[in-house]
Amino acid sequence: MTDADGFTPLRIKRVVRETSDAVSLVLDVPGPSENRFHYQAGQFLTVRVDVDGSSHRRCYSMSSAPIEAELRITVKRDSAGVVSNWLNDSAAAGDELLAAPPEGRFVLTPGAPTDADLVAFAGGSGITPIMSLIRTALADSERRVQLFYANRSRESVIFSEALAKLATEHPGRLLLRHHFDDDGGVVTGSAIEAFVSESRGADCYVCGPAPFMDTVESALAAAGVPKSRVHLERFTVSAVPPGVTDDEPETASTEQVLIDLDRKTTTATYRRGETLLQTARMAGLRAPASCETGSCGTCMARVVAGTARMLNNDALDDDEVEEGWVLTCQSLPTSRTVHVVYD
Ligand SMILES: Cc1cc2nc3c(=O)[nH]c(=O)nc-3n(C[C@H](O)[C@H](O)[C@H](O)COP(=O)(O)OP(=O)(O)OC[C@H]3O[C@@H](n4cnc5c(N)ncnc54)[C@H](O)[C@@H]3O)c2cc1C
Ligand code: FES
Questions:
Q1: Helix-, strand-, coil-residue percentages of the chain, each rounded to 5
Q2: Candidate of 238, 244, 298 to mutate for ligand 2, largest count of ligand atoms within 8 Å of Cβ
Q3: Do 49 and 83 form a contact (C-beta atoms < 8 A)?
Q4: For residue range 37-70, what is the model confidence (pLDDT) as tens digits?
Q5: Which domains does the chain have, with CATH numbers?
Q6: In testing the pocket of ligand 1, which one of 105, 235, 291, 300 has its CB within 8 Å of the most ligand atoms?
Q7: Model confidence pLDDT, tens digit, residues 255-295
């Protein structure tokens, strides 16, 4: 049932058209795989689909919450995208979708004080993990929740009714603010600062298109929110990373990569131009990975000896990089020997 790469077929139980360019897929997890598909609010699945004879992997966050009976992802069209359009146009009830188990670190901080508000900023499809987070926080704690939700227009709002219903069910605990670009332009930093100033000791969660995230991140810093309380989930890679080529000069001196995984150290021979993840795979290891674009953090490991350079990093923060963490899917070794430890 589950293939060698860890993908399990999940039957599409229902397709829900949310807006003209977004669709939710309710997925049935087969009984024997139920444990592998338990998830925390804010996590995502990796799906693998074949489109026109090519296989593609993409990450989609759960828009459902763990307290709900059904597991659901929600996919918004990317105008020129392969998989998002295919799922919007072709996914049908009864079909099977191959998915790898939930991953991700965009989750509620364990033991967050109940008097710290949760303040969420969502742009467009960024509402998917945020929906899961706020539904969970409202159900499992006494925390107040604020949601700033930006969209181009009223028609493009996903979960408009579900959010209004949540606000009614939790009077005084969910403050919902919609922003429509149509009404006066894109979100400004001052609107974000004003919104966060209405909260108490907030944990902030941010997900949306890159320019929206940049505006929110800067505004939260300007408002004095400590970085440790700002949680970011990036759906898109900030820049197309340069391809890894066989003649990548920096990797010329590397001969050996030591890899600690599952309490075992493996010595891998290094092939010029390969990433640490590719090296681990070539050595026959089942190293964790998901998006393979530097966005999700699933492949993170720590370089404890030697050096490596990341081609792209949209998942680790500066402190983690300082401590030696790397995204192995994006890392080229740059010293003769490199020792990598998976947690
Ligand atoms: C952790 C995580 C969670 C996510 N959760 C969700 C979610 O809940 N809902 C959701 O809708 N999306 C989510 N995404 C985004 C999703 O994984 C896909 O990236 C998105 O659906 C676009 O995929 P696609 O195949 O349609 O587009 P792609 O075919 O990957 O194309 C994406 C864009 O890149 C451009 N592009 C492609 N190739 C090139 C190239 N060589 N040069 C220049 N431009 C290029 C395309 O024109 C297009 O605009 C998530 C992403 C991550 C990392
Ligand atoms: S697999 Fe997602 S960042 Fe490496």
A1: 25, 35, 40
A2: 298
A3: yes
A4: 999 999 999 999 999 999 998 999 999 999 999 9
A5: 8-103 (2.40.30.10), 118-234 (3.40.50.80), 249-341 (3.10.20.30)
A6: 235
A7: 899 999 999 999 999 998 899 999 999 999 999 988 888 88
